[in-house]
Write the structure tokens for this entry.
Amino acid sequence: MSALAATEPRPEPAETPALSIRDLEAYYRVAHFGIRREVRAVDGITLQVGRNEIYGLAGESSSGKSTLVKTIARAIRPPLFHAGGEVVFDFAGPGRVSVYDVPEEAMRRLRWRHLSYIMQASMSVLNPVRRVRQSFDDFAFRHIGGRRDEFWSLVEQHLERLHLSAAVLDAYPHELSGGMRQRVTIALATICRPDFVIADEPTTALDVVVQKGVLGMIREVQQQMRSSVLFVTHDMAVHANLTDRLGIMYAGRLVEEAPTSALFRGPRHPYTRHLVASLPRIGDRSLRVGLEGRPPSLADPPPGCRFHPRCPLAMPVCAQESPPLDHVAPGHRVACHAVAMGKA
Ligand code: ATP
Ligand code: SF4
Ligand code: MG
């Protein structure tokens, strides 16, 4: 070993990610006119989410965002199946234990306390015929336990954090506005101080002003609790305001990933460039050009790069070989032949 090498500072060991998924695959197995087909909605995704990080997932409708987060949360039921790959949370204990290698009972113990998942169209978590108080009782009390009066004062403090008064506890969900219901859902998902929160389009149905308030609160609660968040929305403007890192999905695959600011400053994948270019900018009156064509059917995706039928830079190799997701800069990965060849 050289003298220089001996005195060189040792690189810090990389922090264990809060979530690490590898080669994850999840398919819907469906029958179409009697013919069995697989819809490959999550087709080989590898990514990591750091501790205390908000990781965003973007991509157009049907790109597989919800299927991916359902698979990560192991909240899947037929016709959706886990077809391969692992999902490892650091809170699940030492060693690489995938959520698919533990009994369902162990998984139930991790839910709410360590992992909470706000599903798309999650109003279903609030039972419409029961007062909000009952939902807190059902979901949170059995994890937090202790004295009842202490539990309710904790709930009230937490609601206050989300700018909600204790009066919401005695309301039925339909008596609350959309914004309030969504904040109640977020309060419910975070009251147990989970290590990891998955939120799927939690603000999409809200108007812009309410949405802004709710996003601010998600950030505030995340910072106070130092939890990790996996945040899904197709709305790139929301990602620009909220997330630390961003993964772009196209047709069941991750096509680009970078720190959010880097991705907006310098998107590399042609699809990401389209997403970023179609964001409205103040003072810019130029006509936005839409992306031609439709996303492919995931039951019969095109060979090679799944974006090739719509890509302005497509080359013959794109229809033959699937591009690997490679680093183009530290922390920036892109799956594109043109980028790898220096043509984009
Ligand atoms: P959105 O932005 O509209 O929420 P998404 O990115 O979350 O879309 P998914 O809901 O994960 O997309 O859907 C991914 C693919 O899986 C789509 O092609 C969809 O048609 C298909 N899919 C979803 N649910 C089912 C189901 N129950 N049976 C068969 N295919 C399904
Ligand atoms: Fe376009 Fe080819 Fe890159 Fe796919 S691999 S995004 S088709 S240039
Ligand atoms: Mg979805």
Notes: Residues 208-225 form the longest helix (18 residues). Confidence is low (pLDDT under 50) at residues 1-13.
